[in-house]
Amino acid sequence: MDISKFLRTDEDYEPIDNGRWLPVSEDDPDTQFFVIGMQSKEAQDFLKNAAARLREQNGGKELTSEQLNQITQECLAEVCLKDWKGVKNNGVEVPFDRELARRSMNSRDKTFMVLVSGLVNELDRNAEKYVEAVTKK
Fold first, then answer.
1. How confident is residue 4, by pLDDT bands cut at 50, 70 and 90?
2. Distance between CA 32 and CA 25 in Å, rounded?
3. d(CA 98, CA 136)
C-alpha cells in the first residue's frame, strides 16, 4: 500500500470539490452523471450541519444509524449529484431535475441511490485518476 494515497494535495482534491462527468456504466457511456465527492468541502459542510441539526433534535444524543443513512442520502441528492445527461423516460431525454433526483433517491427501489453513491465513491477513491485525465489533455 502506498501511503501517498492518504496524503492528498489540494490538486488531488480538485475533482472531488469541483466534480466530474462519470458514465453510469461501461455498457451505457452516453448516460453520465456530474458528481462531486462526499469528501468535498461542500458535502462535508452539509453533513456536519445536518448532523448538528439532528443531534439538537435528539436532545444532544448521538445519531442513530437510520439518521446517518438519511443525511447521507440527502447529501447525495442535494449536494453530490449536480447534473445528468442521457437519462431517458420511454426514449425521451429527461433534463436534470433536483426534485426528480430527490424522489428517485428516496424511492423504495434503491437502485438510483446505489448508482449515485457508487459514482461519488469512485470519484472519492480515485480522484488522482481524474486529475491526471484532465492535466494530460
1. low
2. 8
3. 33
**Strand pairing class (28-35; 81-85):** antiparallel
Separation CA 120–CA 125 (nearest Å): 9
Q: Which long-range contacts (CB under 8 A, 24 or more apart) does 4-13 make?
A: 8/127, 8/128, 11/131, 12/127, 12/128, 12/131, 13/39, 13/40, 13/127
Q: Which residues of 87-118 are buried (b: 16+ CB within 10 A; e: fewer)?
A: beeeeeeeeeeeeebbebbeeeeeebbebbbe
The predicted-structure confidence for 19-37, as pLDDT tens digits, reads as follows 999 999 999 999 999 999 9
Q: Closest Cα to residue 36, out of 24, 21, 50, 51? A: 21
State how far the Cα of 129 lies from the Cα of 68, in Å rounded to an integer: 29
Q: Kindly report the three-state secondary structure assignment for every residue of 27-70.
A: CEEEEEEEECCCCCHHHHHHHHHHHHHHHHHCCCCCCCHHHHHH
Tens digit of each residue's pLDDT (9 = 90 or more) over 35-76: 999 999 999 999 999 999 999 998 999 999 999 999 999 999
